[in-house]
Amino acid sequence: MKRPVKIAYAALVYLFLYLPLVVMVIYSFNASRFSMRWKGFTLQWYDHLLHNATLLQAAAHSLYIAFLAATAASLVATITALAIYRWRFTGRKTIHAALFVMMMSPDIVIGISLLVLFMALALPLGFWTLLMAHVTLCVPFVAITVHSRLHGFDPHLIEAARDLGAGEAEVWRHVVIPMTMPAVLAGWFMSFTLSLDDVIISFFTTGPTFEVLPLRIYSMVRLGLKPEVNALCAVMILITAVAVVATQSLLKERK
Question: How far apart are CA 71 and CA 144, in angstroms?
Answer without folding.
Answer: 16
